[in-house]
Amino acid sequence: MHIAVAGNIGSGKTTLTESLAKHYRWVPHYENVEVNPYLNDFYNDMQRWSFNLQIYFLQTRLQQILDIRKLAKTVIQDRTLYEDAEIFAPNLHSMGLMSTRDYNNYKSLFNLMVSLVKPPDLIIYLRASISTLVSQIQRRGREFENSIRLDYLNQLNERYEQWVANYDKGKLLVINIDNLDYRKNPEDLSLVIDKIDAQIHGLF
Fold it and tell me: 100-114 and 46-70 helices cross at what angle (nearest 10)?
């Protein structure tokens, strides 16, 4: 199986991916922000680096999916291929931070890639308020995230909700994390696991 965790910046995707991989003994695939050659430049100058960043994300996530499909094991992926194209890239375009020419080029490439791969068997979407996102971003203390604006996070949240409302490629589990702390509270993690179990048993 291919399980994927989706959610806005700071929603706790990596933490949940780690916890679920440990619990289920799944193989985790992480979004490696530490070696991303564009991320720091992007947050300093979004307009200049938006297209480069999104192309980088697209090719790395496609490679992840190809690697996942080669494994005869259940894999849990931190962030999905769809989020870049359905949330981040169109948001950058609407903000005037990606040109229409670049955006159309990006979308054409994305549509070609999506036609060649199978969607995840289950997507777990972590829904969070802006205050929760900001709190968790500050707690992890990545320097390049210090310049993220509240309106940018809010626009992303709105696009996530639109995407989730229209997602029809497979099973989708929505978890509101505002009142959960599965990093510290085993009961909160158990609650999430129970919801996932209910979805997984329906996959067979």
Answer: 0
Q: What is the CATH number of the domain that holds 199?
A: 3.40.50.300
> 185 or 142: whose pLDDT is higher?
185
| Catalytic residue annotation | 78
**141 pLDDT more than 70:** no
Residue with tokens 């992926």: 77
pTM above 0.85, yes or no: yes
In 79-187, beta strands by DSSP E: 122-127, 171-176
Between CA 2 and CA 24 the distance in angstroms is 13
pLDDT at 144: 63
Is the distance from CB of 26 to CB of 76 less than 8 angstroms?
yes
Count the domains in the chain: 1
Q: Which domain holds residue 33?
A: 2-203
